[in-house]
Model the fold of this input.
Amino acid sequence: MGVIEVKELVKSYNGVRAVDGVTFSVTEGETFGFLGPNGAGKTTTINILCTLLGFDSGTAFVNGFDCVKEPLKVRSSIGLVFQEVTLDNELTAEENLKFHCYMYNMSRQLANERIDEILGVVGLADKRGTIVKKFSGGMKRRLEIARGLLHRPKVLFLDEPTLGLDPQTRTNVWDFISELKASLGTTIFMTTHYMDEAEACDRIAIIDGGKIIACESPGGLKRSLRGDTIYIKSTDDERAAVELKEKLNLSARKIGSGLSIIVESGEKFIPKIFESMETPILSVSMKRPSLEDVFIHLTGKEIREYQAVAPVRPHR
Amino acid sequence: MLSYKAIYVIVLREFKRFFRQRGRMVTTIARPLIWLVIVGSGFVNLIDVDTGANYIQFILPGIIGMTILFTSVFSTISVVWDREFGFLREMLVAPVSRVTIVFGKLISGTALSVFQGTILLAVAPVIGLNFGLSDFFLMFIFMTIVALAITSLGLFVASFLTSLEGFNVIMNFIVLPMFFLSGALYPVENLPAALQLLSYINPLCYGVDSFKHILLPGGGSLSAELPLYVDVIFILTFATVMTFLAALVFEKRK
Done:
C-alpha cells in the first residue's frame, strides 16, 4: 500500500465536479507531481488529503489513515506548505516555528532542538529573532517549508510552492527542496503549473477538468509522444491541415494561430513540407518533445492559455 | 479532546500580538479614560443625584463593562484576520481538535479583557470609590465571566464572517446597542419598556449590574437594579450556550 492511496475521488461544488473520479497512489520516498492549469482540481485534491475538505464519494488514505475517519492522525503525519503565505507576520521566525511545535505537542526541549536544526538547514539561522514582516518572499517560503518539516512528517505537501516568486528565487527554493529530499527522504506530493518544476518529479499526473489524463514519469510521458513536434504557421490553417492529411497522411492539431503535428524525425520531415504543400507557409519550427508538448497533446490546450492571473494576497 | 499545549501557544500568540500593536493597546486604555473624564464630568453637574454616588462614580462600572465589551469583541477579529491572511489554515491542519482552537481564542480574548478591566479598576480610588481586597477578587471573578460571555458571543458571530469589512459592520451593530442598553450610562429602569426588554437579553446589562453591586453598594437610585444571583446565573448561562454554539459553528465551517 502506498503512502497516499486515492480511489475514485469525487468532489463537487454547486453541481460542478472539481475532482471527478481521481485514482492514484504515491509510494514512499517518491516526488509526485500534479500538473495542470488553475482550476483543474489540484488544490481541491490537496485540501481533501489534508482533511481540510470533505468529499462526495471515493476513498482517500494518507499513511494508512482514513482522511474522513482519522483526520487527526492524518494531520499529525503530514506537513503542508500552502499556496499563500500562512505565517504570522507579527511574530519572529522563531516564534512562528515554536507555535507550530506546540501545536504538534512537542516538548520545549525537542522544539528548541528542532528549531535550531531546521533554521540551519534553510539558511535562516541568523534571522531567528527577526519579525517575519521584514522577510523577502523567498525567505518566507523557506521558513514555511522549514515549518512544514518541523514535526518530521512522512509526507510533505507542497501546493504551488513557488507561486508568485521571481525566477531566481524559484530556482533557489527548488534547489533547497531537492537537497532536503536527499537528506531526509521525505515523500513529496506537489502541485504546479510550471513545466520545469514538473520535470523534477519522479512521476507526474496530468490533471485537467478534475480528471487525471496521464500518470507516468516525465521521461515516459515524453516518450509516449513518439517523435518531434513541428509547428507550422501558414496563411490558411484549414487548407494546410487538409493538405497535410491528403498528401502526407498526417493529422494536424490546431494550436492557437497555427498547426502542430508530431512526426518521428523532424529534421527529415521539414523539407517535405515545402516540397509538397501549396498553401503559403509563414514559419516552421521544430521541438524535441517536452512536457509542454505532452500536455498540449493530451489536453489540446496550452497550459498558459487558460492560466488566469494568480490572485495576489496582500502580505502584511 | 483538548490539547493544552496548543491552547497555551494560541493564547501566548494573541498576547504577543496585542503588546506589539502599540496603537491597539493605547486605544483600549485611552478610550475608557476619555469616556470617564469627558462624558463623566459633562454630566456630573447636570444630573441631580440624591444619594451616595455621583455621576462619574456611577459610570465607572459601565465603563469597565464597555472596556470588556470592546476588548472581547475586537479580540475575536483575530479569527477573521487569521482566515483572511491564511494563518487559520496553519491551525486547522495541526493535529488538534477545532474545540481546542475555539478555547484558545476564548481564553485569550477573556484574559486580555480582564487585563484591561483590571487596569481601569485602579482608577476607582482616584474618583473616590474605595473597595477592599475581597471586593477586588469578586470584581476579578465577575469581570472574567462577563468577558467570557462576550468573547464567546464575538467568536460565534466572527466564525460566520469572512472579511474584515463585514466584521466591522456587524460588530458595530452589535457593540453599540449592547453598550447603550447595558445600564452603563443611565439606569435601565429609566428606559421605555420596549428597550428595557432588549436590555434584559443583553449579557452586558447583567455584567454591569454585577459590577455595580460591588463598586456602588450605597449608590441609592444609581445602584444595582437586579439581585446579584440573577446576574451571575444569566451571564454563566449565556457564556455556556455561546461557547457551545461557537464551537459547533467552528466545527462545521472550515
